[in-house]
C-alpha cells in the first residue's frame, strides 16, 4: 500500500513538473529592453497626470482592502497604517516599525508575538498597497525607467525596482492607454516564476481627494478586489 502511495506521489510530481515546463515554454517572456532617459520619464509623468498625481500628494488618508482578507487605513501624514485581518489589528508605524502596536482580539500581543505580527503586517502592506498605488511609485528611490516600443507601435513604460520592498529586482511593464491611464502591467517578479504575466488595472474611481485609483485587477483566472477604495484630504 505504501509503495503504491509513493508511486502515485511520484507520478503527480512528475506531471506537475511537466505541466510547469509546458506553461513556462508557452507563456514565459524575457524582460523587454528599452531606452532610459527623458522620453521614459515623460511617459511616466503622462501617467501621473492622467491619475491626478498632484491630488495623490494631497491625499491624507487612503482606505481599501485586498481580496476581502486584509483591511487598511493609511494615514499618510502620520505614516501610520491600521492593518486588520482575522482577529488581528496592527497599527503599523512606517517610519519606526518597532514602535508599532499589535493586538489580538483587542488585547495587546506579547512582545514576541507582536514582532511576528508587525513583520507580517509590513509584508502585507508592501504587497497590497502596491496594487493600489503602484503607478505613483515610478520615481521611488532605486527605480529605473525605460521606454519600450511595442510590436503594435505603441509605447510602454518599464519600471525596475533595484531596492526597497520585499523583492528588489522586480520589473513591471506598464501598458498605457492613449489617455495616459494604465490599462495593465506585465510582471517579472521573484514570487511569480513565469515572466511576463499580465494583470489588469481597471474599474478606476475618482476619490474625494481627486485622485484616480483602481478597484479591481484580473491576473489570469484570478480577480483581485481592492474593496471600497477611499481617498480623503
Write the layout of secondary structure elements.
Layout: H1 2-27, H2 38-50, H3 53-57, E1 61-66, E2 70-75, E3 80-85, E4 88-93, E5 101-104, E6 107-108, H4 111-133, E7 143-149, E8 155-161, E9 171-176, E10 182-188, E11 197-200, E12 205-206, E13 212-213, E14 216-219, E15 222-225, E16 230-232
Transmembrane segments: 5-27
Keywords: Membrane, Transmembrane, Transmembrane helix
Task: Tell me about this structure.
The chain is globular, with a radius of gyration of 20 Å. It is built from 4 helices and 16 strands. A 7-stranded antiparallel beta sheet has the order 6-5-4-3-2-1-16, covered by helices on one side. Strands 7-8-9-10-11 form a 5-stranded antiparallel beta sheet, with helices on one face. The chain is 29% helix and 33% strand. The model is unreliable at 10-26 (pLDDT under 50). With 233 residues, the chain is of the alpha+beta class. It has one domain: outer membrane lipoprotein receptor (LolB), chain A (Clam).
Structure characteristics:
7-stranded antiparallel sheet; alpha+beta; transmembrane helix; single chain; outer membrane lipoprotein receptor (LolB), chain A; 233 residues
Strand and helix order: HHHEEEEEEHEEEEEEEEEE
What is the percentage of strand-forming residues? Answer: 25-35%
Helix content: 25-40%
Kindly provide the radius of gyration, computed on alpha-carbon positions and rounded to a whole number of angstroms: 20 Å
Overall CATH class: Mainly Beta
Helix segment count? 4
The biggest sheet amounts to: 7 strands, antiparallel
Low-confidence stretches: 10-26
Number of strand elements:
16
Order of strands side by side in the largest beta sheet?
A: 6-5-4-3-2-1-16
Instruction: Label the overall shape.
Output: globular
Mean pLDDT: 91
Could you tell me how far the N terminus lies from the C terminus, measured between alpha carbons in angstroms? 66 Å
> Which CATH architecture?
Clam
As for the CATH topology, it is outer membrane lipoprotein receptor (LolB), chain A
Structural class: alpha+beta
Total discrete domains? 1
Keywords: Membrane, Transmembrane, Transmembrane helix
Transmembrane segments: 5-27
Amino acid at each position: 500500500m505504501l509503495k503504491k502511495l509513493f508511486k502515485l506521489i511520484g507520478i503527480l510530481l512528475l506531471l506537475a513538473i511537466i505541466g510547469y515546463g509546458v506553461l513556462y515554454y508557452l507563456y514565459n517572456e524575457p524582460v523587454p529592453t528599452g531606452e532610459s532617459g527623458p522620453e521614459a520619464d515623460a511617459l511616466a509623468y503622462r501617467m501621473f497626470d492622467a491619475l491626478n498625481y498632484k491630488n495623490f500628494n494631497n491625499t491624507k488618508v487612503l482606505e481599501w482592502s485586498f481580496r476581502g482578507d486584509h483591511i487598511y487605513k493609511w494615514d499618510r501624514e502620520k505614516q501610520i497604517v491600521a492593518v486588520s485581518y482575522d482577529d488581528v489589528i496592527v497599527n503599523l508605524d512606517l517610519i519606526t516599525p518597532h514602535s508599532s502596536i499589535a493586538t489580538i482580539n483587542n488585547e495587546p500581543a506579547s512582545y514576541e508575538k507582536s514582532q511576528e505580527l508587525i513583520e507580517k503586517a509590513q509584508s502585507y502592506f508592501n504587497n497590497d498597497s502596491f496594487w493600489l498605488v503602484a503607478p505613483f511609485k515610478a520615481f521611488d528611490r532605486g527605480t529605473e525607467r525605460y521606454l519600450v516600443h511595442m510590436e503594435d507601435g505603441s509605447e510602454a513604460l518599464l519600471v525596475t525596482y533595484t531596492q526597497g520592498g520585499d523583492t528588489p529586482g522586480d520589473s513591471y511593464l506598464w501598458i498605457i492607454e492613449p489617455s495616459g491611464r494604465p490599462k495593465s502591467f506585465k510582471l517579472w517578479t521573484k514570487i511569480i516564476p513565469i515572466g511576463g504575466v499580465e494583470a489588469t488595472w481597471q474599474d478606476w474611481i475618482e476619490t474625494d481627494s481627486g485622485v484616480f485609483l483602481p478597484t479591481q485587477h484580473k491576473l489570469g483566472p484570478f480577480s483581485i478586489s481592492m474593496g471600497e477604495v477611499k481617498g480623503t484630504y
